[in-house]
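dumping this here so i dont lose it
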């Protein structure tokens, strides 16, 4: 159950016992499906668990390619929808309550470990979290990184970048939010390593915000130069995230841009999005091969979590 007492929706991937026909799941008019063996038996053994956190306005299916890919590398992977910041259930004010997202993951973890069918297959000493965009922040937050409301409000006052404009259009004054809720620690000591792809909300942090951070951190940035999204660019001049996480592994992947982490688009995807005046999430920079990029991200995270050498 989420903080709102509503059931959490999600999906689970795991190493399958034996070969079987793979069928594309989560197909849509915009995005290609992801091949999986639906309802296959789980391979005997105890497996690492990876929790996935989607971006703002996203969905657990947005990272199905990563869930399926990490399961192929030998992990149980679970993605959940975050009420209030999920496709079909989105409100800016609720999405800014970023600690509720960690609560969603903790609730999911508790339920999985207690589940009679799945719990015995989980190696409780190998619990990991990976996320994209606001989900990238969620992974860092559950790993111990604390936010700073005043620093983010100052960033928005100075920059006026996309997320800040969206907040202003929603009529929200960041300075009026509860700093104690925004800036407190949401660390879960069961989580041993985290990976963040283009994480949000990290502007203006200092070493004190990282004093309780888990050691094993992977930061993946998408794109270079003008293709970087300013709100998630941890390598931009004046950014502080890499400085306060000196042990973090850092990988910048290009050509790409922020939305290249979304599923592979169908040929007509970009046109359909343009007709709906939606974000150009299918329009990668020239030279981008989204399937190859997804494979690279998956392998990087798999190595970081010790799933492969």
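and the seq i came up w/
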């Amino acid at each position: 159950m989420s903080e709102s007492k509503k059931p959490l929706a999600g999906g689970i991937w795991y190493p399958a016992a034996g070969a079987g026909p793979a069928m594309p799941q989560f197909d849509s008019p915009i995005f290609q499906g992801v091949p999986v063996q639906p309802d296959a038996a789980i391979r005997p053994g105890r497996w690492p668990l990876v929790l996935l956190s989607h971006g703002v306005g996203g969905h657990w299916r947005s990272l199905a390619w990563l869930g399926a890919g990490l399961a192929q590398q030998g992990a149980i992977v679970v993605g959940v929808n975050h009420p209030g910041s999920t496709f079909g259930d989105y409100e800016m004010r609720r999405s800014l309550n970023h600690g509720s997202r960690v609560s969603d993951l903790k609730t999911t973890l508790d339920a999985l470990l207690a589940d009679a069918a799945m719990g015995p297959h989980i190696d409780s000493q190998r619990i990991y979290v990976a996320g994209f965009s606001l989900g990238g922040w969620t992974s860092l937050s559950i790993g111990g990184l604390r936010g700073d409301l005043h620093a983010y409000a100052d960033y928005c006052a100075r920059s006026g970048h996309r997320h800040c404009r969206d907040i202003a259009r929603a009529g929200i004054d960041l300075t009026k939010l509860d700093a104690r809720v925004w800036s407190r620690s949401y660390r879960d000591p069961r989580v041993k390593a985290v990976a963040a792809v283009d994480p949000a909300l990290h502007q203006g942090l200092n070493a004190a915000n990282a004093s309780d951070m888990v050691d094993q951190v992977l930061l993946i940035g998408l794109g270079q130069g003008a293709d970087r999204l300013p709100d998630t660019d941890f390598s931009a001049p004046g950014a502080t995230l890499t400085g306060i996480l000196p042990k973090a592994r850092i990988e910048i992947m290009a050509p790409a841009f922020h939305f290249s982490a979304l599923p592979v688009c169908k040929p007509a995807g970009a046109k359909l999005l343009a007709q709906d005046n939606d974000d150009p999430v299918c329009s990668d920079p020239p030279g981008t091969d989204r399937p190859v990029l997804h494979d690279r991200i998956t392998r990087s995270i798999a190595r970081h979590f010790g799933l492969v050498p």
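The mean pLDDT is 94.
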